[in-house]
UniProtKB/TrEMBL annotation:
Its EC number is 4.2.1.130. SUPFAM superfamilies: Class I glutamine amidotransferase-like (SSF52317). GO terms for biological process: methylglyoxal catabolic process to D-lactate via S-lactoyl-glutathione. This is D-lactate dehydratase. Belongs to the peptidase C56 family. HSP31-like subfamily. The keyword Zinc-finger does not apply. It catalyses: methylglyoxal + H2O = (R)-lactate + H(+). Keywords: Glutamine amidotransferase, Lyase, Stress response.
Length: 235
């Protein structure tokens, strides 16, 4: 049977209290999706509300020199316009069915997935079932308040990366987001690491938890997930 991955996108479309649009970030979906597709994965895509998951329009311009991301945007709209409601995969159903879960970044996740109890329960279920839990850029926001049985934070004691404070400052969003992801990970006991320079790729694998720092890390996260799943199945 083909390996299966559940991709989770944000349903949040506004940047804090501003009228600025936000959502998920194009290359952070397009590159891992392409990796999973090339590896023969069965892919399901979900969001808290289901239906259309909002694409951050600025990510299209960000990808102006990224031919594969632009091709994905042109040809794969059904991927994010017809997402399943995340609750469909609750109560162990997703953890039983899938080999991995992947949380796409973009600023949206810090506003909805970070505090979504359904998402938190599903992430914990995947981890407890021995499946791969992965995220990129702001996607790790979905994991920061996830607790596993016994009350310990899922990320506690683990080496983790995410969009850095420096990068958040460079995009001018430090006063808009509800928390800085680098700080939050450190506060809950995660061992935060980052690339030597802002915007450089950084992928961190700690057991079955895979995280990437920024858009440049998205493809690497997908590749790390595929490698871990293959190792588990002895391939």
């Amino acid at each position: 049977m083909a390996p299966k991955v559940l991709i989770v996108l944000t349903s949040h479309s506004k940047l804090g209290d501003t009228d600025q649009p936000t959502g998920w970030f194009l290359p952070e979906l397009s590159h891992p999706y392409s990796v999973f597709e090339a590896a023969g994965y069965s892919i399901s895509v979900a969001s808290p509300h289901g239906g259309v998951a909002p694409l951050d329009p600025s990510s299209v311009d960000f990808s102006k020199d990224d031919a594969s991301a632009l091709e994905f945007h042109r040809t794969k709209a059904s991927v994010w316009e017809n997402t399943q409601e995340l609750s469909t995969f609750a109560d162990g159903r997703g953890a039983h069915e899938f080999d991995a879960i992947f949380y796409c970044g973009g600023h949206g996740p810090v506003f909805d997935l970070a505090s979504d109890p359904t998402s938190q329960a599903i992430a914990a279920e995947f981890f407890e079932a021995g499946k791969v839990v992965s995220a990129v850029c702001h996607g790790p926001a979905a994991l920061v308040d996830v607790r596993i049985p016994g009350g310990k934070f899922l990320l506690e004691g683990k080496q983790v990366t995410s969009f850095s404070n420096e990068e958040e400052e460079m995009v001018g969003k430090t006063k808009v987001v509800p928390f800085l992801l680098e700080d939050k990970i450190k506060e809950l006991g995660g061992r935060y690491v980052k690339a030597d320079k802002a915007w450089e790729p950084k992928v961190v694998v700690d057991g079955r938890v895979v995280t990437g720092q920024n858009p440049a890390s998205a493809k690497g996260v997908g590749e790390a997930v595929v490698k871990l799943v293959a190792e588990k199945h002895g391939k």
